[in-house]
Amino acid sequence: MTTSKRPLRALALTATALGALTLTACGTRGAAGEPAATAAVTASPSPRMLSGKDLERHPDPIVRAQAIALRIANTCVPGSAIELPPLPAVSHVAEAAAPYGTDEPPAPAVPPGPGGDLPPVPMELPSDLPEPPDPVATVSHDEEPLTAADRCAADAHADRVRAAFTTAPADEAALRKTLTGLDYLPESVHRMPGGGPLRVRIDLRDLSPNDSLALELTATATGVRVDAFGAPIEGDPDITRIVREPASS
Asked: Who's near 202: CB < 8 A, 6+ residues apart?
């Protein structure tokens, strides 16, 4: 059974960000039982917690991207999206952990043989093994219709993008730089194959409460054209392989 990418990655990242403030360096013990070098954990939190629109200026780019997506979703349908809880403005968290703790490295599960090699372990399969599962159903690569809430959120994202491109992007690097400045994650921006004008898709499926929302940007002579479409989430199909419906004239 395929599951959705929901809940948002932000919920896991929230715990990470909050936990960064409470991490303690766990020391190891040397041969004499004295504390050895500890794991280096540093955090530089803001003196206050960030919430609401302040999260759109958080140092973590994923928190910023999700805070924007959540605000847009709640603007379209108030109360429809779970707000991020207040987060510390952590600017840097570095952790270097020793490979082992107080004890020696764990011994292998099977004792080594006379030559130092692990002895072969015969594998006997049970006679009552179940039949292999049926082949997984074909993943859909067809565009999905957007709901009214999706369309509202798509329009808000499109307005942000269009406003940032007052001239045509010189190349893909310039286009990506502008999108990064708008807090769209680099890994969410995918170049479309083929010739013709520069074209990318922004995958918002795992960042936005609007599960299937995606944007397609096409470079024009004066900026970019932004088209929103619905991308299926079942099977997590490649965003670049979603087949768009022909535009109605």
From this structure: 157, 179, 184, 188, 189, 190, 214, 215, 216, 217
